[in-house]
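Tutorial handout. Part one gives the primary structure; part two gives the three-dimensional structure as tokens.
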Amino acid sequence: MEIGTKLKEARVAQDLSLESVQETTKIQKRYLVAIEEGNFQILPGKFYARAFIKEYATAVGLDPGELLDEYQDEVPKTEEENTEQYTRIQRSRRDTNSSRGPAIFSFFPTIIVIILIIGIIFAAYYFYSKSSSGDTSEPVDTNDDNEIIYNPGENENQDNQKPDDGADNADGTDSASKDENQTDATKEEENPEKTEPTLELVEEGSGPSPESTFDLNNAGDEVIIKLESDSNSYLGLTNGEEKEYYAGPFTADDSPKEIDVSGDERIYFNVGSAPGLQITIDGVELKYPVDPAEKVHQKIWININQEQ
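Part two.
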């Protein structure tokens, strides 16, 4: 017995029409008929075939996992498609990394110059402070040999006099404030501001179901995907290998939804209706590379590059 025939028999046994199954699964009637007849080639893609069969089986009371295992030879597989795309992504990543290499090395001369300038400033400040402290003595008046001056309180005042901790330097600046400002400047050099994450288009797809590639640069340790919809759409979300985050219809009732993909090097979106689904990754909104009004079905790969 074929998988489509078993699904049809289960539907008929429960006295369900194609229209009622369409209403439950949000799958168009012509795709339901194609599944029952085994015409998987007219479905939007291989990924859709497995997803639609799971939804159909659930609607008619069958176990989707057992059904797919029993008829695994009939259901279209997506391994070849994923392998080919993985090779293309790895090649794009190598090209991107190779182009970044010279740019990184070009920063070393600048860093060395900055370190030298800071060292010169510290040395100049040290010698200037030292020379200033040696010139603070006041001239001593020369007394006439025949003149005797007696000041009984002079020695006592000199013994009780204490240096001022906040004494100014010869240039009129407070030494404590100057040290503090210098320390703050050094901290700013050592702790630059964190670079915000960005989405960069690597390859724009084409055809009836365009497949595009993005690089998520400067990604944080925690990468969160936020999904929002104001209408009905279909979404398949995986890490390109064995991990499946979402598969099925996505409506306004499901919004908003957040999915944590931290630790994955890449993720794959299969969007059935692009105009009805807004995607935000690590706080950056994803702009569809192809006009969603013209190509509603789009596939998108995201390479996740952590902050350097």
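Part three, for discussion. The mean pLDDT is 79. The beta strands are 198-203, 211-219, 224-228, 233-238, 244-250, 257-260, 266-271, 278-281, 284-285, 298-306.
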